[in-house]
Amino acid sequence: MSKITVWFIKSAMVYFVLAIVVGLHMAASGTTYPYMPIHAHLNLLGWISMMIYGVGYHILPRFSGRPLYSDRLAEWQFWLANIGLVGMSLGWVIRSYSSCHICHKHAQNNKGCHTSACGKIKPAIRQGMYGYNHT
Ligand code: HEM
Ligand code: HEM
């Protein structure tokens, strides 16, 4: 097997283990789970797609009877796919800590948005707009 096939298959296996860990954590958690897209994409892009890329790089040149156009290009694809998946996953982690999510949490805890900082700012803006409209 070529170097690139081994890299893809090894990373697919690492993502599969990570996806299972996130999946089990999700199954054990409550109904709202902000990391569901991470589980989904570690599985679909990390496990399934990386495995397909790796196996594809092995069998497609054999099916076509022609060598790869460029090994360099395949290495670029490997790094971009990995950086993209890890970056996207980190993005979802960051999003889960965004103010929007905090608002959602307040709402779910039945505290309502009014107790939170953004809950105090919003009525202030509303009053301001109302006042502006009526002057
Ligand atoms: C031990 C293995 C796994 C566990 C424990 C697990 C667990 C879960 C759980 C708890 C959910 C949330 C379901 C919901 O609340 O609607 C979920 C969603 C999902 N899982 Fe897994 N899963 C596993 C393996 C896989 C595999 C192998 C794949 C794909 C190859 C996969 C793809 C997905 C996708 C795409 C979703 C999102 C579905 C949606 O958008 O509604 N999972 N998984
Ligand atoms: C460059 C590649 C991809 C990008 C940038 C991407 C991006 C996204 C985004 C932004 C969401 C919405 C997540 C949310 O806000 O909750 C999503 C959901 C989803 N994507 Fe992708 N995706 C990619 C590849 C794929 C692939 C290859 C598959 C399937 C083979 C897939 C299957 C899904 C599924 C099933 C959902 C719903 C899962 C959930 O609700 O958590 N995606 N994707």
Order of helices and strands: HHHHH
Number of domains: 1
The small molecules bound here are: protoporphyrin IX containing FE
> Outline, from the CA principal axes?
elongated
Q: What would you report as the Rg, rounded to the nearest angstrom?
A: 23 Å
The secondary-structure class comes to: mainly alpha
> What's the helical proportion of residues?
over 70%
Strand content: under 5%
Number of helices: 5
- Unreliable spans: 110-132
The overall pLDDT average reads 83
Number of β-strand runs:
0
Largest beta-sheet details: none
Question: What is the rounded distance between the termini?
Answer: 76 Å
Written description of the protein model:
This protein has one domain (3-97). 80% of the residues lie in helices and 0% in strands. Helix 1 (3-28) packs antiparallel against helix 2 (36-64) and helix 1 (3-28) runs parallel beside helix 3 (71-96). It is mainly α and 135 residues long. It has helices at residues 3-28, 36-64, 71-96, 99-108, 117-133. One protoporphyrin IX containing FE binds next to helix 2.
Summarize the structure.
By secondary structure, the chain is mainly α. The protein contains five helices and no strands.
What's the helix and strand layout?
Blueprint: H1 3-28, H2 36-64, H3 71-96, H4 99-108, H5 117-133
Helix pairs in contact: 1-2, 1-3, 2-3
This protein binds protoporphyrin IX containing FE (2 copies).
